Amino acid sequence: MDTFLTRIQTFYIPASSSVDSPQYRPSAEYTVHLSRADFSSLVALKLALQEKTKAGYIQSQFFQVAFKNEFQGVHGYQGAFLTTSEELRLSFQSQPSVIELVVVKYTKAQAKLLHQLVSKEELPGLVGYLQSVRKNAPEREESEEEAIGFAERYKDVYPEKMFQKIGNGLPAGWPVVDLQEEFEGFTGVQVPLGIYRECLKFAAKLNSE
After folding, report:
1. Of 69, 75, 101, 145, which has the fewest CB atoms closer than 10 Å, so is most exposed?
2. What structural domains and CATH numbers belong to the chain?
3. Out of the domains of life, which is the source (predicted)?
């Protein structure tokens, strides 16, 4: 078999936790096909994940990889990250036909604390990443809680109808508000305060760019 169906689950470490004693939280999932050559080295695997997932944060952030069946991070323990290419090749041989990977991504601030925690083989990638972000103009770094979107964060608080892709029509099931004569020609809908605050933050960000 030259290609392998590969399921990838990404995790992040929230600000309430730390890189040396992490509590991992799930972020996103991907399904891709990887080749045997993609598992020949850590560098090859990371490059393949960046290319195949097309995920911007995997392309722009430092991350570590583990086989899911060897990873205990979701339970709050340090994950069994792949730290050498030799370890990767040996573990790959014992994987099932459908491979499951875990990717843990780090913010810039978290990556700065990893020097003593990553392997010698991972260290050049970490140093290169930190050097590259220093060369860029300083930007406000979004926390993962902001990056995953408010729909994911509020899905347990508000009913599913609150999260819709809206085209030219009104969102179905939202309470309509009378905007009075001064807003003639417009229709208003009632929005929960939490979502309204997120909209204001998004608008402020757009106006600043």
Report:
1. 75
2. 3-144 (3.10.20.90), 150-208 (no CATH)
3. Eukaryota
